[in-house]
């Protein structure tokens, strides 16, 4: 029955609106899942930085290695936060699209016609290029075109500058800010003269080495997760 109505009277605006809203909710849930994963990675990485710094204090012979380790984890934290900011911005754009789409359908209900929105089209074109949302955003753009809210999507749209940001740019200034933020007030928790008895040097030295190997494996896993969120 619905298909026959669509043939003779065109698509049902209410059905179109429900489908668009369903796709927007689906994309929002995906972004929320990704943001929660990034939040967990952020917390773990902060703790790894603190652990490495404490190890440097309690065992001076490991200080150089631990310093390199803190910077490595700080660079990972820079990547994580850039990705978090990007996804948070995308989520806000998606919410904006949802409100504008509902408003457009309400105007259509009152006036009996729709006006194409360049603002919605711009946001959709930005979001559709995100690896996390490409598939469902293509579906949403198709539905919005059918509803007459946006022009037909063109894949060769001008790239958005925010998406061209080099996420691998690990400026030392950013790394230093991360270290200052994470380690502020933490170093005082470690003893000022950690190793006072030579007898304890051997077991203490062995423990950080094992910990370092574990954290190297963890770092590799974190990078894999971060890359997975981008693909």
Q: Please state the oligomeric state of the protein chains shown.
A: single chain
Taken together, the total number of domains comes to: 1
Largest beta-sheet details: none
Cα shape: elongated
As a whole number of angstroms, the C-alpha radius of gyration is 25 Å
Number of helices: 7
Range of strand content: under 5%
Mean pLDDT: 76
Output the helix-strand order.
HHHHHHH
- Tally of strands: 0
Low-confidence stretches: 4-9, 156-165, 187-209
Q: Approximately how much helix is present in the residues? A: over 70%
CATH architecture: Up-down Bundle
CATH class: Mainly Alpha
Do you know the CATH topology?
A: Ferritin
Structural class: mainly alpha
The span between the termini is: 40 Å
Biased composition (Polar residues): 187-196
InterPro entries: Snf7_fam
Region (Disordered): 187-218
Biased composition (Acidic residues): 207-216
Task: Write a short abstract of this structure.
The chain has 231 residues and is mainly α.
Task: Jot down its keywords.
single chain, 231 residues, Ferritin, mainly alpha
Describe the secondary structure blueprint for this structure.
Blueprint: H1 2-9, H2 13-58, H3 63-111, H4 118-128, H5 134-147, H6 172-183, H7 201-230
Task: Describe the protein in words.
The protein is mainly alpha-helical and 231 residues long. It has one domain (11-230): Ferritin (Up-down Bundle), CATH 1.20.1260. 74% of the residues lie in helices and 0% in strands. It has helices spanning 2-9, 13-58, 63-111, 118-128, 134-147, 172-183, 201-230. α3 (63-111) packs antiparallel against α4 (118-128). It is elongated. The two termini are 40 Å apart. Residues 4-9, 156-165 and 187-209 have low confidence and may be disordered.
């Amino acid at each position: 029955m619905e298909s026959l109505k669509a043939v003779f009277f065109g698509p049902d605006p209410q059905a179109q609106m429900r489908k668009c809203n369903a796709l927007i909710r689906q994309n929002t849930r995906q972004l929320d899942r990704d943001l929660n994963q990034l939040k967990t990675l952020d917390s773990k990485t902060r703790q790894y930085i603190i652990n490495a710094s404490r190890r440097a204090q309690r065992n001076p012979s490991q200080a150089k290695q631990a310093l390199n380790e803190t910077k490595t984890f700080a660079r990972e934290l820079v990547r994580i936060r850039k990705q978090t900011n990007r996804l948070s911005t995308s989520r806000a754009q998606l919410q904006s699209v949802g409100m504008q789409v509902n408003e457009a359908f309400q105007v259509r209900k009152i006036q009996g016609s729709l006006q194409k929105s360049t603002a919605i089209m711009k946001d959709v074109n930005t979001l559709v290029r995100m690896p996390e949302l490409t598939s469902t955003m293509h579906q949403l753009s198709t539905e919005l075109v059918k509803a007459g809210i946006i022009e037909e999507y063109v894949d060769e749209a001008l790239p958005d500058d925010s998406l061209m940001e080099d996420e691998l740019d690990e400026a030392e200034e950013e790394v230093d800010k991360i270290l200052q933020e994470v380690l502020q007030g933490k170093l005082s928790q470690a003893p000022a003269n950690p190793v006072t008895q030579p007898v304890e040097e051997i077991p203490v030295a062995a423990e950080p080495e094992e910990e370092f190997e574990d954290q190297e494996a963890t770092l590799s896993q974190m990078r894999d997760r971060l890359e997975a969120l981008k693909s």
